[in-house]
Amino acid sequence: MADLARRRKRVSLEEQLDGGLEEGSGKFSIPSWLRRRAEYAVYAVCAVGILILAALPVDVDSAPALEVDAFRVINGFPDFLDAPLWVAMQLGNLIAAPAAAAVAGVFRRWRLMVGFLLLGAGKWILARVVKDLVIRHRPGTFLDDVIVRDEFGAGKAFVSGHAVIAVGIATLAHPYLGKRGRIILWTLAGLVCFGRVYVGAHLPLDVIGGAALGVAIGAVIHAVLGVSRSQEVR
Fold first, then answer.
1. pLDDT (tens digit, 0 to 9) for every residue of the chain, 234 residues total?
2. Integer Cα distance of 55 and 169 in angstroms
3. Helices 110-133, 32-55: crossing angle, 10 deg rounding
4. What is the C-alpha to C-alpha distance for residues 169 and 92, in angstroms, rounded to an integer?
5. CATH class as words, domain 31-225
6. Distance of CA 84 to the CA centre of its chain
7. Cα–Cα 20 to 30 A to 113, which of 59, 104, 196, 232?
8. Could you tell me if 163 and 121 are in contact, meaning their C-beta atoms sit under 8 angstroms apart?
9. DSSP string, 50-66
10. Structural domain boundaries of the chain?
11. pLDDT at position 189
12. How far is Cα 176 from Cα 111, in angstroms, rounded to an integer?
């Protein structure tokens, strides 16, 4: 009985703190749900800052020497990586967002499902805006001896849409996954970013900018919709 009483008291205290009331003080503190949303807003601002920094050196048909050197190294990796990286890169396909929403719906993660759908729409709109503001062509249009391993057309390269989707999915799913799931999903997101450089579709700053935009979109969605406390894994 004593243990039950203590447990009820602890639950009551947690409810008071979540509601913004400190026990015995009558003073209001910042509710936990508001703190979490504020944290995600900060993540979004930081991600936008990284996106801007990645965009600064970008030019239409040129790239900094260090970026070109990094591209040459990654693009020159052995051909046997092509098939497994192609599989991993499907996480960055635009259809991956509604597919992830369908999976979230099967597991009754309704808030996450809406988040994935908003991610797809956000990528579709914001990536186009960035591409029109920061114009850069594909590496093969201004660099020699680029190894092209995929059919991706001659569109604008900054930012990588695959990176936006993959990192956005990882950002949205992160609070709902355990440690192993997080490692797997973020590893796949990293492979998508690596793979887009490997196949010759993007230079490194393109995927860094895309990853930053993915984090920004995911963080804004969490800041607006919140994360379900009953389903969150800590």
1. 455 445 554 444 444 444 444 444 455 577 777 888 999 999 999 999 999 999 999 999 889 999 999 999 999 999 999 999 999 999 999 899 999 999 999 999 999 999 999 999 999 999 999 999 999 999 999 999 999 998 877 788 999 999 999 999 999 999 999 999 999 999 999 999 999 999 999 999 999 999 999 999 999 999 999 987 766 676
2. 22
3. 20
4. 9
5. mainly alpha
6. 21
7. 196
8. no
9. HHHHHHTT--SS---HH
10. 1-30, 31-225
11. 97
12. 11
Query: One-letter amino acid identity for 172?
Result: L
Residues in the chain: 234
Are 135 and 158 contacting, i.e. CB atoms less than 8 angstroms apart? yes
What does residue 130 show for φ and ψ, rounded to 5 degrees?
A: -65, -45
| CA neighbours closer than 13 Å in the CB half-sphere of residue 231 | 17
Q: Find tokens 């509710």 and name the residue.
A: 31
Q: Quick one: angle between helices 204-225 and 32-55, nearest 10?
A: 160
DSSP string, 48-114: HHHHHHHHTT--SS---HHHHHHHHHHHTS-GGGHHHHHHHGGGGSTTHHHHHHHHHHHTT-HHHHH
- Give start and end residues of each alpha helix (H) in the chain: 2-18, 32-55, 65-75, 82-88, 96-106, 110-133, 161-173, 179-198, 204-225
Give the position of tokens 């604008």. Answer: 156
pTM of the model: 0.85
